[in-house]
Amino acid sequence: MNETSNIVPLRQPDEIDDPLTNVLRAGARQLLAHAVEAEVETFLATVQDLKLADGRARVVRHGYGPARTIQTGVGPVEVARAKIRDRGASSEGERIRFSSAILPLWARRTRSLDALLPVLYLRGISTGDFQEALTALLGKDAPNLSPAVVSRLTAEWQGEYERWQRRDLSARRYVYVWADGVFLQARMEDHGECMLVLIGATPEGKKELIGFQVGVRESAQSWRELLIDVKQRGLQITPEIAVGDGALGFWKALDEVFPGTRHQRCWVHKTVNVLDKVPLSVQATMKKDLREIYWAPSRASAEAAIDVFAEKYRAKYGRAVECLAKDRDALLAFYDFPAEHWDHLRTTNPIESVFATVRHRTVRTKGALSPTTAKLMVFKLVIAASKTWRRLKGTNQLPKVIAGVRFNDGIEVIHVPANHAA
């Protein structure tokens, strides 16, 4: 006989009310166990020829270590580490040991979770709230991701950043570079510090982060220190062209450190500067006319469009025309390079898009975070994002340099840069 009851069972903190999540965790547990088993079998196969005096195998399986919980993107997954035994070692130094690459001895979470922490910070969650935020993703209490762990991770990131800053660049060659200063408004101090960012494109069309350090955006000295540092670490071949905002002290420093590099002013920044000098009622029309210039199919067409712009607006808006005309050559430099690359060279978009999240970081974040920690979190985010950066179009047209001489389509060219414009 069934009895009715007014007691309603409540969901317990560690219960999963999503069947799909339950299936995913069960599947992850099985896959991890199978992967660890396969790793052990592969290791044993490499030492199967080692025998004892009586012919028995020297290295054999030796059960499992204590089960432990690994934090993953689908929540906690329990797994036991397989163990092996060396029965023939005469001393500790001769003992053959097995170390799992999939499940390191002290691992408590996947590396992807460490990479998630900078993203959480940049989305407005402070270190003290990480555990609370991750509980919804990883299950009850989200162990091994406490503020103390975040502090230890910061120390590890500092080591990674310092090693990255010392890396050898003698084998690197960058045909194009983009430069910009990125302000971390919520976390940097009030005296104008920002992150100086330098991104380059290799002759194969791959974009890479070249420089990343704290400085003053408009300061030529800060940019000079960054450029001299990368040059001293081996970056000796002068880039073909550099793209950046006209207000940067970067240009003065660039002419001192890499005097052969051409200047390309960012059209997005220049458009904003020009429109700031006219009334709001004129800006929509003027913006369309500016677009006609940098979207022109050739340099000659762009030059003609600038002349039309000047004739149209000089009488009433002379300051706007002067702002555009003074950087005329630097605004049209991209036309002297492959047409496939014009989209890449018109603006500092390779930097703008990467740091869009950083620029919109607000002071709504609870809790304090030092500028150093903010820098390291952004650094980790950029390094992770760099693996997915879009390659340049038309990479077969990129100039190649051998012993200081450029070759285009097999023909030696002594005077550079060559005009590739379509």
UniProtKB/TrEMBL annotation:
InterPro entries: Transposase_mutator. Required for the transposition of the insertion element. The keyword Amino-acid biosynthesis does not apply. This is Mutator family transposase. Belongs to the transposase mutator family. It holds the Pfam family Transposase_mut. GO terms for molecular function: DNA binding; transposase activity. The lineage of its organism: Bacteria, Pseudomonadati, Pseudomonadota, Alphaproteobacteria, Hyphomicrobiales. One of its GO terms (biological process) is DNA transposition. Keywords: DNA recombination, DNA-binding, Transposable element, Transposition.
